[in-house]
Amino acid sequence: MLHDEELEQQWHRLQEALEPQFGGDLDIQAILFIIGIQELGQGYKKLKKDDKLNVMHIAICTLLEPLGYYEFEGKDAEGWPHWKATAKLPHLKPAQQAHLMRQAVVDYFRKMEVI
Q1: d(Cα 98, Cα 42) in Å, to the nearest integer?
Q2: Can you spell out the DSSP letters for 18-74?
Q3: How far apart are CA 61 and CA 59, in angstroms?
Q4: Angle, helix 28-40 to helix 94-111, in steps of 10 degrees
Q5: What is the pLDDT of residues 6-43, one digit of tens each?
Q6: Residue 82 in 3-state DSSP?
């Protein structure tokens, strides 16, 4: 787990690395959407509002799977991935939740060698 200052540095490096392809001012929601689309693996297509929420869920499950909160079950007939909850998420204050998600995002992009 990175300390706050180091995590902020990594977070800014990630934003800078993604900026040329996706534009500036990427917040956590935008980056989660990028991860979800990547993990869905269906390329560009128009999504309904519910599908956009499902893409965000894909990202969250993908990020929290290595931490033991979800287990990948497989893909359905339409190619959408599904997970099952394996552990109850802890009750976190908003700042703690933001730290956890940023850490998970940074770890995800490190594995992909983006940062």
Answers
A1: 28
A2: HHHHH-S---HHHHHHHHHHHHHT--S----HHHHHHHHHHHHHHHHTTTTSEEEEE
A3: 6
A4: 40
A5: 999 999 999 999 999 999 889 999 999 999 999 999 98
A6: strand
pTM of the model: 0.92
Are 105 and 63 in contact, with CB atoms under 8 Å apart? yes
**pLDDT tens digits, residue range 45-73?**
899 999 999 999 999 999 999 999 999 99
Separation of alpha carbons 42 and 93, rounded Å: 35
Q: Find residue 71's DSSP bridge partners.
A: 84
Burial of 13 (0-12, 13-18, 19+ CB in 10 A): middle
Angle ∠(64,113,67) on CA atoms, nearest 5: 15
